[in-house]
Amino acid sequence: MAEVVNITATAFANATSAVYQPTYLERQWLSFFEGKDYVIIRLAVILFLWHEFVFFSRFLPYYICDFIPYFRKYKIQDNKENTPELVWKCIKHVLVSQITLQLPMMMAFHPVATLMGMKFLEVPFPNWQTVALSCLFCLMAEDFYHYFAHRLLHYGQLYKKIHKLHHEYSAPFGLAAEYAHPIETLTLGIGFFVGPAILLACGVEMHVMTMATWLAVRLIAVVDVHSGYDFPWSLRNFLPCWGGSDFHDYHHMAFVGNYSSTFRWWDWMFGTDAAYNEWKKRQAAKKKVA
Q1: Are 174 and 58 in contact (CB under 8 A)?
Q2: 3-state SS string for 92-112
Q3: How many helices (H) and strands (E) does the chain have?
Q4: In a domain, 4, yes or no
Q5: How many domains does one find in the chain?
Q6: From the first residue on, what is the mean pLDDT of each consecutive set of 10 residues in the chain (290 residues)?
């Protein structure tokens, strides 16, 4: 087996001719930062653009479905319309939040991540198995945190002053995933970093490329559960533990229960999916009668 070592940008020239030949993507990544100023800003801009690309591109297919009658039968709350005015209101709020809140958070990512030991300019990049397992762990860790933090936001003044804003859309669509109060964005946003922090604390190597992949996974999942569509090929039909849009859409419709972000097991363990299960039974009974 060929010897493979991690190298930094400063050792790039020697390494390419000695032990490891970086891939095209790795060369582009290293050259983008090699000898450049404003590394923190450069990384923040890359992550921000990646966030915008994944977030809006994942929403686009669902938006197109709104204009195709065939897909109407898969819309969960087909008696409610998200008018262009409501969609535009959501877009404006989300963009302001992303620029004024999330972008500064991304600028703080590099110093904090490197302090914790995250890999940044090391190659080779982690293999897909490592990335997949890391993302799966992060998904479960975020789901654990999200359940309790989200449930807390439904109590008293926390709901009235903070979380109620997110529930303005009782029939959600993809972009509404990030339609939230700044305090909620920060509070629930912590969940994104729980998994990586645990892995680093346990001595597991984390690379910024793994974080970028995890960011994409999380964005795709959160847009999907707010999509308002439940297709036959939706993941929940193949993984019983997966919540999906059908599970979370009920939360927006009823304003209670189904607090998990991805999986269903915490709601099952604490009984906060009971009302949803009863509602599903009534819906099934109506279909039989019809």
Answers
A1: yes
A2: HHHHHHHHHHHHHHHHCHHHH
A3: 13, 0
A4: no
A5: 1
A6: 45 54 92 85 95 97 94 90 88 97 93 91 94 98 98 96 96 95 96 96 94 98 96 94 96 95 97 95 82
